[in-house]
Amino acid sequence: MTTVQTPPGVAQVQATGTSPKTVARTGLYALMGANVVAVTYFFAQSGFGTNALLLLGRVTGLYAALTMAFQFVLIARLPWFDRRLGMDRLTTWHRWTGFTLLWTLLAHAVFITLGLAQQSELSPVDQFVDLATTVEGVLRAIVALVLIIVIGGASARFARRRMAYETWHFIHFYAYVAVVLAFTHQVAVGSTFVSSPAATAYWWGLWAFALGSVVLGRFVLPLWRNLRHQLRVAAVVPEAHNVVSIYITGKDLDKIPAKAGQFFLWRFLTPDRWYKANPFSLSAAPDGRSLRLTAKALGEGSASLRGIRVGTRVFAEGPYGAFTSMHRTRPNTVLVAGGVGITPIRALLEEIRGHVVVLYRVSNPNDAVLMNEMRSLAHARGAVLHLLTGPSSAPTPRGPMLGPQSLVGMIPDIRDRDVFVCGPPAMTRAVLDSLRELEVPKQQVHAERFSMAG
Predict the structure, then answer these.
(1) CA 132 – CA 135 distance, rounded (Å)
(2) Residue 319: cis peptide before it, omega within 30 degrees of 0
């Protein structure tokens, strides 16, 4: 008798009927919804007043404070949420929530100023100056608003593309200053904050949870893990003229909760690199003895990796990412890689059970990184490996190389498989469009942003 085993990730989904992403997303929505209800209750408890503009100012200020706290939870890198939703999705939500915060804060400032000007019969400009110079906490709030505006401007696409990651990251550290200033403003003049002991306890608890999440996820966990594991470079192996693999060893590596498909933010502690954190995926499934990353020389940071010396200390933040077998829903799988996006795909091929088809898209065969390993793994696992080469615009009998008809031609049962996609943005979009046209169920499609993968 032959027994067919269902992979763990598939068994979990089949048993609960709910994907890990849905569970985590529902948890975040419920958390936000419960806090909206609490803020609304305490606002109503404190009284509405008679001035409509002041009422709008108070409402926008309260929900701006709640939004700011939620912002911090989104980028706290809490492992439970990150493994289920992925840093790319959480970062996208953080970005759009940030723009919501900016407009809400501006509305708060405008409505409060206009409402008080209406009562005092001062001009809005004179009222604004009076608030800044005579009311405790208002000047601090203005400084916080200016910082949020600067951070929002730095996050706009046209600015982000022209800015080094380190500069962008440094500017974002001022968000912590803005939070402290905004909170002291809320304590000083927020009527809802002091409307009752319960309201005061709620706001203190909310900010303790939000900032505590950041301290835990961004500082305590990385420091604790690196002190425990003492990571060092064990070997630097050129894979091609512009590709290098780095092997990392340390203590108790079997205790690092990393899975194939995830990535770390790596800092190599040399005088010229310690302040640079580069996201690189694991290019081999973790085995408890070493970790391996493989990088292509796409920028200054990755280009200098070839010169890293054996024995160099490493500070790694992570593991991060939801591009793992945890999210599988079907017994069989398709893995689609483009360029150096092969690194998490190669790790997944090593770990995933069931029948696997791999599509590896490169411009020419010389760009196929880790190809010998992929062939050996595919042979050992009984997987099917397709190397797709040539210009993207090159015609094929079935249309575009990664178009719907080509995918069905190579994988007739693609609608009954999970599909993992990692590659350059244009390629990833093309594959996702094809899967949508083929009506592959959304919960079976798993995509990793190339910028976070390596």
Answers:
(1) 6
(2) yes
Top CATH class of 325-453 equals alpha beta
Mean pLDDT value across the chain: 88
Q: Are strands 356-361 and 384-388 parallel, antiparallel or unpaired?
A: parallel
Q: How far apart are CA 139 and CA 109, in angstroms?
A: 12
Residue 428: is its pLDDT beyond 60?
Answer: yes
The domain 228-320 is placed in CATH, from the list 3.40.50.300, 2.40.30.10, 1.10.8.420, 3.40.50.920, at 2.40.30.10
Burial of 27 (0-12, 13-18, 19+ CB in 10 A): middle
DSSP state of 53: H
Q: Which two tokens stand for residue 315?
A: 């500070």
Q: Which residues, 6 or more positions from 415, have their beta carbon under 8 angstroms from its beta carbon?
A: 438, 439, 440, 441
Q: Are strands 356-361 and 445-449 parallel, antiparallel or unpaired?
A: unpaired
Place of tokens 């007739």: 412
How far is the C-alpha of 9 from the C-alpha of 297, rounded, in Å? Answer: 34
User: pLDDT per residue over 161-210, tens digit each?
Assistant: 777 766 777 788 888 888 888 888 888 777 777 788 899 999 999 999 99
In this structure, which amino acid lies at residue 54? L
Task: Check residue 399 and give its pLDDT.
Answer: 83
* Helices 165-172 and 174-189, packing angle to 10 deg: 20
